[in-house]
Amino acid sequence: MSRRLPWGPMARLTGRRILFAVPVLAAVTFGVFAIAAASPFDPVKAYAGTAGLTASQHNLDQLRANLGVDQALPARWWDWLTSALTGDLGDSAVLRQPVAEVIGERLGWSVLLATTAFLIAIVLGTLLGVLAARRQGGWLDRAVTSLAYTLEAAPPFWLGLLAVWLFSLELGVLPAGGLTDTGTTTVTAGQVASHLVLPAGVLAVSQLPWFVLYVRQGVGDALDEDPVRGARARGLAPRTVLFGHALRSGTLPVLTLIGSRVPELITGALLVETVFSWPGIAAATVQAATSVDFPLLAALTVLATLAVLAGNWAADLLYGVADPRVGFDG
Amino acid sequence: MARPARSAIAGAAVTALAVTAAACAAPGDGAKGGDADSSAVVGIAYEPDSLSPLLGYGKDGNSKIFDGLLTHDADMKLRPALAAALPKVTDGGRTYTYRLRDGVKFSDGKPFTSKDVVFTYETILDEKTNNASRTELDAVKDVEATGDDTVVFHLKYPYAPFAERTVLPIAPEHVAGRQDVNNGEFTTKPIGTGPYELVKWSKGEQLVFKANPGYWGGAPKIKNFTMAIVKDDDVRATRLRSGDLDGAILPPNLAKTFKGDAAKKTYTAKTFDYRVVTLPTGNKVAGDTAIRRALDIGVDRRTMVDRILEGAGKAAYGPVPTDSPWFTKGTERTHDVEKARKLLDRAGWKTGDGGVREKDGVRAAFPLWYLTGDKLRQDHALAYASDAKKLGIDIKVESGTWEVIEPRMPKDAVLAGGGAPADPDFDQYTLLKSALAGDGFNNMAWYENATVDAALEDARRSGDRAERQAAYDTIQRELVKDPGYTFLTHIDHLYVVDERFGDLTTQTEPHDHGLASGPWWNVEDWRA
User: Fold this and answer.
1) Do A96 and B183 touch (CB under 8 A)?
2) What is the Cα–Cα distance from A152 to A160, expressed in whole angstroms?
3) Among residues 311-370 of chain B, which lie with CB inside 8 Å of chain A?
4) Taking the model in full, what pTM does it have?
5) Distance (Å, rounded) from C-alpha A27 to C-alpha A30?
6) ipTM of the complex
7) pLDDT tens profile B505-526
8) Which of A281, B277, B452, B495 could be joined to B267 by an S-S link, Cβ 3.0–4.6 Å?
């Protein structure tokens, strides 16, 4: 069974993807600048806030010049791009902080939330999917499948509000939001863990249906395949057949799913972070968008695009490793 | 062959978790917390954009972290803070001299001197500083330090209320002066002379303060003070009920639900916070004096206060509330629909199709805009339109963001808000001065009245209280004869606080009531 990993083809795939990422990132950032410039929001008004409602026109014009938003769109994009390439991501006007600092403070928390949720979704989804596939049409299968379809239709923010209502307001067992309790200033693992339960749970549950349904389908199909039927005919234990044979070939579609779920995971995380006041990049993204904060918005878009590209790359790599017939041509 | 794939996934996940755990530091993470028995946690709806006074934070005082040269007491009287005494005004109101308090230190141990004052004001006045409130210091020509303990402000023109502006917090030059003023670390990790030091600011979540043990006014008894930022009113009320918060600002309907709770006290802060309809001169209908006067006496302010504000407010007849010493008695308008109708009839506005009046082929109709999502303004706008309909004036209520509303301001009416209690000049000059018509959000009605213009100048130049009062009386009487706005209500701000802190006070509050307002304006003086 053991064989050397095909490092050469894998490296070539990675190289191709990196080359491909360059034009994609350039196009995406320009697109973001264009959309933001076309939006009705005014960065100067967003910056000034309520003080802007009593400011003189001269004061507002000066702010516009200071913030550099009086320049034309391509010039602004070019300025941003050239300084970003030298490592200077610029300053976020709305948060009054350098962009690198904003991201540095928040990214870790978003990654923690998203990874936890993703792992729960994969593990729980695979487990439920296998159980459902074991006896297709049985009561467990019907219960799991209908629950999966219901959850698939439910928007994450709605699930989040429901969870806050049930676990924080009605039962009072879990905190409704934030990273730590109000009034505490130290970030302890225990505090973070208890505050992580609800947002990670909601995000996991919102991603769960895809894994359940894919695994159920894959394992169900595999159970009907010749090698699996052969294994069963040879008298192997049902458990060995299910996990050793059916699951192995049934998980292949899940590998592609992991890559393609990354964009959904990011948007889901944005909504969940907002509902639970999680101090990740979501709040910053929303503020950056509504205040037309170009440097912050562009940096966050680049991050999200990179995550999606990396997700696809990882999925293709894993698929090729798991099934040599597929190869690394993508 | 699938085994390597599975362990690759697990490996990646473990790496991700490890990286996350290593990078764990909450936004704005700072030092340690403290004991619970002398702490207070309050819920507010507003979050500052920055904590740097150079960018406008705390410009009206009570900034917790900083002190101004002067400060306001419970009755809004000026008291010395970083200054040793109230300023000496010379040169016909053009020169203000402040002698500074001795021995004051910033919380990092460095002494406070006149250089810090000059640095603060000069930085704010610098065009490169992104401070949207710079206009408030328009009168300042220059600031100079004469020795370590004296600061002299030279003004461009005699400006009576200038001392009120010097509640503005003073930033340390040795910290803020070495950074980028707009995006430097000082904007999120401030250092001041004030009663509290910032421990941590988790954006969107909370501001945590601890008492400054070396505060020149004596160390506060409340050692740990937290402001939780909770934008949703219902969530704030729930967290107050559950004991998570010790106090909170609440709208009237939610404040009422704490009436029967013996452990909580409700405080009603009087305010200058008005809601007003701008009637732009550029609109043939809204700019007509007869229409303006008819609306002024034809709207039912009493009902607005009772129904919309649930009694927590007062009818407004001008920027000055009826209970202020600056208010001109006798300028209250009596609600009189008949008189309003007659006034319109006499002016030639005759009832036409569908009960809407007309004059010279112009229908008595105009749009009224309010800020999308602002329920209070929406309610005021709808009530105003419904009262106007009874007079035969057709007002179409529409909502939009400021980006939508601003280009329409020269022609369309807007439901606006404002109010500054420190001095009548602060909001009246920008609201009524004809030279400021359409300048940003100033004088949104394009109001033009020579008598008012002259009185505004007299009132801001004269240092004599009686002369100033007379000028503001003239303005308020003129607004009865020639209104450019319909003032509707002054809104009380309601706060519910745990009774263990004893009897607290509130100041007279402005429209823009951030974290400086509420019974915690002087939390440094609360008992533990």
Assistant:
1) yes
2) 14
3) none
4) 0.81
5) 5
6) 0.75
7) 999 999 987 788 999 999 999 9
8) B495
